[in-house]
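Async update (no meeting this week)

Hi team, since we skipped the sync, here's where things stand on the single-chain job. The sequence we agreed to prioritize is pasted below, unchanged from the tracker. I ran it this morning and attached the output directly underneath so nobody has to dig for it. Comments welcome in thread, and please keep replies under the output.
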Amino acid sequence: MSGPSVLTLAWRNLWRNRRRTLLTMGSIVFGVFLAVVFTAMQDRNWKDMIDLAARLGGGHVSLQHPEYLDTPTLTRTVVRGEAVEAALDGERSRVARAVDRVVGPTMLATAGENFSAAFIAFDPEVEDETTLSILEALDGGAALEPGDAQGVILGHRLASNLGMELGDKVVYTVTDRNGEIVSGLARLRGTLRTNAPSVDGGFCLLPIATVRDLLGYGDDEATMVAVFLHDQRQSGRVAGRLDREVGGALAAVPWNTSQPQLAAFIALKVGGAVFMELLIAVLVAAGIFNTLFVSVMERLREFGIMLAIGWSPGRLFRLVMMESVWLAALGLVGAFLLTLGPYLYLSSTGLDLTAVYGGTVEVAGVGLDPVLKIGIFPRNAVMIALFAVVATLASGIYPAWRAGRVEPVETIRVV
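Output:
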């Protein structure tokens, strides 16, 4: 039979009640907008937080002694030998860098004061801000230079508590691999100022070569090998493969295992965001279903006439479903236009929430950035778009089925 196609008729039917169509499109647009913004906030915020935690400590994956996670002492070490290098080479596409670290507790003492602190011993020749983010917080003095055997960098509050100025001496005491108490002398080269009180008040950086000599370590020995990935979402997979390669002698520990408090905090926040997004999706889908169902019920007599003149129930089903397709397409276009401007602004400039936080905020030793920025993973953006389309089409299935079940004789007599 000749006449307008189902696609054209669906488009015309959609605009027979312009206000209702615009309201339905508005719900789709607003729902997708909220989903994108919420997801982008989660993706960017937690990615930055995980990367910061990795760059602050043991990387996205840490190669360490099998018992180190339970009892982290300086007597449990790893040797970065040929087997470790071969395992890392096998993950070259995912691994950005791998660096040796010696991490542990120390006691710092000056002529008048003494305080306990945590230390990270690193190699200034191979590390920078990309692997040790705390170097970005250098507030005074200078970073450790390669070959500087007596330098130390302290949190600014710790230096103040010790009564130290740049160039002053401090004695640090640790327990070596044999359980003996040993001490080293260092001079203050610089101070750190972060928005994490535990770092500013109880943290120091030391040169790894000096610490190795003091502890009796070998040149390729450390408490951990910090492995940094291009994508933190691959941490579990990379840790599993490395563990199979070097398992037994070493343990490959992903960040969420080595930092359970941070992982639990992120999981809680992500779970809450997913619940809110699902709630929004249900409300939007209910609105779409209501619009399509009411539209079908208003046109029962029309559908009866169409069946009487030769339309098949299947063709009526396709007609109503095509209206759902048009709603989904228009909703996605509108959502893109509405989201584009705020997304670009929030991803580049962000919102400064310093006044809202009321100072510094720290979670599991990791400081939160007071400037809120967003950035969505492409996979999640595609998933949101697909979910919006599927939800819209699913909302139209029953109204479309109901349209095809119309009895021509009964409906035509309806006035």
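Quick observations from my side:
The two ends are 27 Å apart (CA to CA).
The mean pLDDT is 82.
Reply here if anything looks off.
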